[in-house]
Amino acid sequence: xxxxxxxxxPFILLLVHPAYPDSKEMEAAxxxxxxxEMLDKDLNAKKDLRPFIPVExxxxxxxxxxxxxxxxxxxxxxxxxxxxTAAVIRIxxxxxxxxxGLARDQKEKIVSKHTRAAPDTNALIDGxxxxxxxxxxxxxxxxxxxxxxxxxxxxxxxxSGKKRLEKVIGVLRAYPxxxxxxxxxARAYDYxxxxxxxxxxxxxxxxxxxxxxxxxxxxxxxxxxxxxTYHGYRKIDRVEFIVSGIK
Length: 247
Fold this sequence. Notes:
Layout: H1 5-16, H2 22-45, H3 55-73, H4 77-113, H5 118-126, E1 130-132, E2 135-141, H6 142-145, E3 146-149, E4 152-157, H7 159-174, E5 179-185, H8 194-208, E6 216-220, E7 227-229, E8 232-234, E9 238-244
Parallel strand pairs: 5-6
Antiparallel strand pairs: 1-2, 2-9, 3-4, 5-9, 7-8
């Protein structure tokens, strides 16, 4: 349907605006541009609607309005009327969709206000946790967590890794009764038990951020488990976070 509408627009405009003599065509063009400008001003004055205005549709309306002004300045009134009317239609549609978006948002806020777990759910989404059975899981790869140089990983937390861990900590704070299992994985031989050691580095950061050690379990799995990737299941250097106790 979206593909058909642009092709139908010229015929719709011809039905809405029949042919005029030149002077009337000019007046019709001016009126269409004036209507578009008024609607645009009215839409932008409503601050509550701004976040919900569909960007692509609104941008098209502004392009139409700009074209209408160029055409009218050149004395091409039929084209000016066409683009002015197109701008009116698009701005009205954008306003309608923005009002629908605002209404939907207000409804969600009312539901969230009466739903006990709404803020907690947001923390899980922010941390990219997925529910699998009775637990929630997320994975962070070693190169996202730790300092690396020339392809070699040093098991010290990188600034970007700390930001990712803050999202996991956010879940633990949102659900004070839950527990966390930190599982280190390797793509190859678990030399010197490093999968557990890197899990301990992560756990230490959480202890320093006031997460009780009683809530955290540390496991080094070596290269025993695979994970799904775009290329199928692979053994990858990573740290997995498994949250239990969320009801």
